[in-house]
Amino acid sequence: xxxxxxxxxxxxxxxxxxxxxxxxxxxxxxxxxxxxxxxxxxxxxxxxxxxxxxxxxxxxxxxxxxxxxxxxxxxxxxxxxxxxxxxxxxxxxxxxxxxxxxxxxxxxxxxxxxxxxxxx
Length: 120
Description:
Blueprint: H1 2-56, H2 60-98, H3 100-119
């Protein structure tokens, strides 16, 4: 009986460790996604800046305001994406620390649903 309890405790500890690794991977993926979004926004800002340079020939007075606005918006969007990714990761970490059993149950449920989806 004691061996079964030890095995169950070890299994729960292993599941929790896997869940923490998975959470770390998710946080890393979210941070990577935030960086990709920031890069995309910066690329769009560069495109907008190139278009603005062509517009300088036609309307010099308006181009400065447009480029500044595009840069401010790009920085704002990148900051918002990074903040959202960080808060998502923090919320997941906090939820797992507060309710580890529920977190394991949710992870198992999500894994089950993903398994069902992949079979089809």
